[in-house]
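Q: Sequence in, structure out?
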Amino acid sequence: MSLDDPLIVSDAAEANQSNAAAAAAATAAAGMPPRFSCFVTGTDTEIGKTLISSAMLHALVERGVRACGMKPVAAGAELVDGVWHNDDCDQLAAAGNVHLPQSITTPFLLKEAAAPHIAAALEGRTITAVPILAAYVEIYAAADATVVEGVGGFRVPLNDSFDTADLAAQLELPVVLVVGLRLGCISHALLTVEAITARGLKLVGWVANETVADMAFADENVAALAARIDAPLLGRVPRLATPGAQAAAAHLDFTQLPNWPAHTKL
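A: Exactly. Output:
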């Protein structure tokens, strides 16, 4: 069997999940508070997942927590001084305070700004779960809090038989949903909530992010979603003159999330 064999991939993925579970159990046994981790997904691409993930990291750092962002798959990179950079990854790194090699925080950094499975094929690569789960375990060991940002919406293909919903399920993290406020967002959001639940994952909060200027009936859309989503609304981020982690965090209340750490700074 090759390393691409589904049985080997499955066994390795289960081993990495067991490592993370063992580390969590050791933390609990030591009487330490459980570590905060979550998976941030969205109703679509370009709806503010990175902004909200960065705001979450900023809020964690402000509480004196060692926090690291992870974007396992990123498509669209630019070569700067001999190093490939992705803007989303750079924003996450800037917001956190635990800095690890890019090969760990983004195991699959792809050059072409396209659907990940297409961008990977152009480079002769195949996106698989094992490197991502192994990298997550390393981040878990190095940080007290981890924010994992997905790519695109909740069901973006990563290879022929593996998508971002599969990745979220293998990571087994609670999910935060970013809803981009624009026409059609109610259906997009509710369908995504159904998909999250169908994977056996727990939706622990959602954010309304204003992606367009002067959306008609924005308040009514938020109210309709709040009445239908069985998870707390963490906040509503307006159109920001200068988008950034700190500015977005001012509109959000992450304390509603499970295992959100207490303030440790004096």
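Residues 1-10, 25-31 have pLDDT under 50 and may be disordered.
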